[in-house]
Amino acid sequence: KDEDGDFSKQSSWTQVWSGTDTDWSCVVDLTQTNFECETDGVYSLILRAVDENGKYTDISFNYIIDFTVPTVKITMPLTSEDGSVSLVETKDFTFQGISSDGSGTGVEKVFWKISENGTAAAYEDAEWSNAISGNVPYWSIEKNGITEGNKILYVYAKDEAGNNSKIEKKIFNLDISKPEITLTSEPSSIVSSKFKFSGTAFDSNSLSASDTIAIYEDGILVETIPLEKIDVANDGAWTSEKDYPSKDEDKKYTYKIKVED
Questions:
Q1: Do 133 and 139 meet the contact criterion of CB atoms below 8 Å apart?
Q2: What contacts 17, CB < 8 A, 6 or more positions away?
Q3: CA distance 215 to 28
Q4: Entry pTM
């Protein structure tokens, strides 16, 4: 068509096929400059067949151009204070996020997967699931039965035109159970010499660098035993480095020993 919207001038048209066959086909790149489809929107395409005598017939249809790539963001679980790993402390958890397609055709689906082994995700993977529909633009995933440990949640959005967003990820640690501690060596109720505490520590989510054993004497923290002092390979065996009581004073002492992850 010309700049006035007149389709009658053949010189202003783009020829896509010529010949004598009754059946024909062509590939039209609607993003070419002469089609002026450089931004998202609804456009009309008119095909005109012209015979040797200049007689013609038009057919037309509307189509949508969508160059906009959607975006997706994970809002739950929250990022931990150090910005690295999010902590999830319940086996029944709802992952949440936001998706948008800007001026495009709109988000059709949000796909997600949880990696158990830290492998990267690709669009062609077979394990993707569709997120539960929410109040657009919000999406949510109800998930339960995940085993404890470090996991990676991957998500991406697909719009109505088939454009994929960037694959986003959130590393989280599922830690449901409390760590356990036992004493294998403890004093009798009355002692005449100093002694050491010893025992074992266990965490179903495995002992990590943040796990410590704290020994309190009369409510005051006296000793902290870090992970490197715990023999993880030997049932989490540990022994206090200090001798107790910490004071040279005959009296009744009260001790509390706890393990924290």
A1: yes
A2: 24, 25, 26
A3: 76
A4: 0.64
